[in-house]
Amino acid sequence: MSPFKFELLHTSTKSRARVGRIHTPHGIIDTPSFVAVGTNGTLKALDNEMVSSIGLQLMFCNTYHLLLQPGPEVIEKGGGIHRFINRNMPIITDSGGFQVFSLAYGSVADELKSKGTKKQGGSVVKINDDGVLFRSYRDGRSILLTPETSVKAQKAIGADIIIPFDELPPYHIKPEELARSLDRTHAWEKRSLDAHLEDPRGQAMYGVIHGGVDDALREKSCHFLRELPFDGFAIGGSMGKTKGQMVTMLSSLLPKLPEKAPNHLLGIADLESLKSCIPLGIDTFDSSYPTKAARHGTLLTREGGMKITRGKHSGEFEPIEKGCPCYTCKNYTRAYIHHLFKAKELTSMTLASIHNLHFMVELMQEYRQLIIDNKV
């Protein structure tokens, strides 16, 4: 029997927002939940003991980067990702598909500006129905990433939740090309699932729903993946050019997903999107935004983002936010953190990241209570 299980505890009477629990071999994830991104097996500027003490229940690691350094075989020899990075709570890994997109087209922001033109001289050598051939940015060696090799790597890494190999087409793509990409992704996901089921290892696999902002293709993807024995579903691909476009797409898609399976929104967890998407019924959200903002001196507060490097904070001998119980706010003042950023001390990034991550964990706890109270 699989150790993975989703419990739906309450659905709001005011919206489709819901509270649940995802059971994994390394603990429970209370939903809705924020998932921080630890690309290389760590959240930048934080060690995993600190991350666990903050209460982050699910952490996202990137298969593509771990494949290149230190390599899945090293992680497996080290006892799997949990033992290797010293984390006893749940971990999710992606397939490497997003990195294929960014290697070919640049970041999402760059792609939206470039109208879908491929980068010149990029690391991707070839994309076909078999998989993707690319050059390592570390040592230049050629690597073939396929559904089977992606799953093999994720098996060796040993995350609790894994993602099938998929293609992330750009926002600017012709409709016929988007349809072809969807068919390829479905074939890759089926191959990934087959490889996973040959050696489950107690891991769960989420199917990834694609189709861009085309409702018909999203529905087609949802119908195709629902017929396969995935443990949950992730929503990937282009979310549109604006948040409004994303919300419109998700509003149409979410009612088509199985109610008794968890769902995850890939790469989106800014505060505005959480406010819009939690009422739609999203269970988990991942994003590097809170920790990236922290490293650039933006601290999250109830009143909005605080740019701690501004001169007005140099004489404020109070915590980042009054009443915040995080380690940073309990021990340090705005004036000191301002000084650390101005002095370019690395500790500034650590203290800021602790606060922002704690802010996100507490925010999601509050959302869960609001849903239970039928206020969201």
From TrEMBL:
Q: Which domain of life is it from?
A: Bacteria
A Pfam family (short name) is TGT
Q: Which residues form the tRNA-guanine(15) transglycosylase-like domain?
A: 16-375
Q: Which residues make up the binding site for substrate?
A: D94, S95, G96, G97, F98, D166, G237
Q: Where would one find the signal peptide in this protein?
A: none
Q: Which PANTHER family match?
A: PTHR43468, TRNA-GUANOSINE(34) QUEUINE TRANSGLYCOSYLASE (PTHR43468:SF1)
According to its UniProt record, which protein family does this protein belong to?
Answer: Belongs to the queuine tRNA-ribosyltransferase family.
Name recorded for this polypeptide: Queuine tRNA-ribosyltransferase
Q: Which organism is it from?
A: Candidatus Neptunichlamydia vexilliferae
